[in-house]
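Title: Comparing notes on inverse folding

I've been comparing how different people in this forum approach sequence design from structure. To keep things fair, I'm posting one structure and asking everyone to reply with a full sequence. Here's the target:
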């Protein structure tokens, strides 16, 4: 749980995981689709791989990434369907959340 939670806590890794829900991907394709640098995507994919959340398949000089287990895919899909009720007067405790714009933190 902690590994998945830490992986999803980073907005870039969350975006990568959401992209991989649709289909396996290559770092360069993910970088282009998410408007990120290839190095940034590669670093985040290495983190996700080291945590066991994604696996790789080598095809010549390219490496394809996919979510390691269908249970993770199902759980992420279910999480995307969750509707949160947020108190408007509440403050955001997570700076990344404030940067991402999911709350009205100063």
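Reply #1:
Here's my take.
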């Amino acid at each position: 749980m902690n590994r998945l939670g830490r992986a999803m806590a980073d907005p870039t890794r969350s975006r990568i995981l959401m992209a991989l829900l649709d289909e396996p991907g290559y770092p360069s394709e993910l970088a282009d689709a998410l408007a990120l640098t290839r190095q940034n995507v590669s670093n985040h994919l290495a983190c996700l791989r080291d945590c066991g959340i994604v696996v790789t398949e080598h095809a010549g000089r390219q490496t394809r990434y996919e979510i390691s287990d269908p249970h993770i895919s199902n759980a992420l899909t279910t999480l995307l369907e969750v509707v949160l009720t947020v108190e408007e007067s509440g403050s955001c405790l997570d700076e990344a959340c404030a940067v991402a714009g999911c709350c009205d933190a100063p």
